Amino acid sequence: MCAACASSRVEPTPVLARGLPPIPSYMAPVKPPEPTVGADPKVFAGQALVALDKANGRLVSARAWYEGVAQDYAATAGGIRR
Question: Per-residue b/e over 51-68, b at no fewer than 16 CB within 10 Å?
Fold first, then answer.
């Protein structure tokens, strides 16, 4: 190797570590209501529907969050925004 080549060695660019943000609290699972003996079936059904609505709302929010993360990753190259 010639002296010029040995003295002009270019160090590789370090790879930047990227991580996802913490999991949002709305992504927590919904605990289903427990039926109790003697409880009104209509009340129980209403509680189950509320739990389902909460779960679906969280899933919709989680999907929107994930799509945002995916777009952000797609807009970066090596940690540098395009």
Answer: eeeeeeebeeeeeebeee
- Write out pLDDT tens, residues 8-31: 677 777 766 666 778 888 788 888
Give CA–CA dist 47/45, Å, rounded: 5
pTM for the full predicted model: 0.56
Q: CA torsion angle for 30, 31, 37, 41 (degrees, to 10)?
A: 10
Distance CA 46, CA 41 (A): 9
Q: What CA–CA distance (Å, rounded) separates 58 from 24? A: 10
Question: Do 61 and 30 contact (CB within 8 A), yes or no?
Answer: no
What are the structure tokens assigned to 72, written together?
């952000």
